[in-house]
Amino acid sequence: MAMKRNYLVSNAMLLKIMRKSGIPAYIRSNSIVTGAGDRIAPGLQLARVPQQLASAPTKRDATVQSDKGDGSAPSSRAVDDSVGNESEATYRAEQAGHQFLGNKTVSDVCEAIIGAAWLSGGVELALRCIKKIGLPLDKIDRWRDLKEHSQIPSPPDNIQLAQSVTVEMQEIIGLQLARPELLAWALTHGSATLQVHTPHQWLEFVGDGLLDYLVVPDIYNAHPEFGPGLLTSLKSAMVSTDALAALCVESGVADYFVCRSEAISSKLKVYTKALRLARADEHETSRKEARELRQYWKGIRPPKELADCFESLLGAILVSEGFDSRGCEIMYKKVMKPFFDKHIHVEEDVNPSAPSVLRNKLAKWKCRDVLVERTGGHAPARKQRRAALRMREELEETGAVEGLLGDLSSDTEDDEDDDDMDGVEIVEEEEADDEDEDSQGPGRSTRMGGRRHV
Questions:
Q1: What is the largest CA-CA distance in the chain?
Q2: 46-94 pLDDT, tens digit each
Q3: What whole-number distance in Å separates Cα of residue 319 and Cα of residue 232?
């Protein structure tokens, strides 16, 4: 199941369905400004690719998009962005009034469209959007169809929970379940059932996907000033195995976890003891230093089985309520959110990557708005870069750049392997006069993630 899910949401699959849908032709990668000459695609009709691009070699896929600024509809075509011909093909596209889009950009737009549908109309509209774009979801046309195709049998007598345990678990999660017997599957490890594949694993799979659904809107609404990098870092800290295992213990769920493996049981005992000692020490330290509680579980290696148990519990709640997420949202607000708010703080515990720090600083300084204002948004790429260099000089005069470099070096010493965005290298040549720039073609390039954009 995990392999199929990863395939369906992979960048390759998203790129494939986006191409079939024709949406890449309407993606706009340059600044949107209002005024005369701003392109509006009339009737959203595709235009033909200009003849001068028809002969461009195609060794590796990418998308070229029309952006002439004359009110004409956009067009798209695959062009060669391989090492040898990328510069020439991209320059030809730019001269013809087109934009170069990388494959990842197209996949990101697909995700953004689905996110916009979800924010606008909830899960039903998001599902309709996914189906319309072309993602293959067999037999699922409405959200309630999930209930009909996801039946889990009641557990056998040998793993049934005592009535008192069922009552106590429902008090912990703050919800009376429609199918409380599913709690037995969620709390029983596979070693206790003597089965290769159990509903415990299936519920864990469901709960793993549900975590993002619960966490993302919470931090998105709580921190509107954060960019995607910081939001991703915060989400990762909340849904990590370390945090979920600690939450499983602190909420009391771990007390009802059933496991018949001596090795796993031994790990659970050692971890629980170490975690509770660390928790007591953190409470004492925070009291003495008059500061907020932090992630006391850091540095203690957690048993993955506890994190899986918590995910299975989330999956059991969702399936029990017929895939209505409101039950899980109740549990999130009662159990999970207070724990996260108490112990996970962006300022102390979430270390953003260097690109994330850079993007947030530039957004705060409104650099992009100033650049659009100075260039009109439709200036050639080389002149936009010249304007950006002038802005950098102005920021250097104010000392802002020096402070930014200090932030990058202090906040990201341990994040050298972060792959959120590969290093950005600006290769500069001697500046030519504006008249020479327009006649010489590309002279300076920016390398981002190994791909050169002219």
A1: 84
A2: 344 344 434 444 433 444 454 444 444 454 444 444 334 445 555 565 5
A3: 27
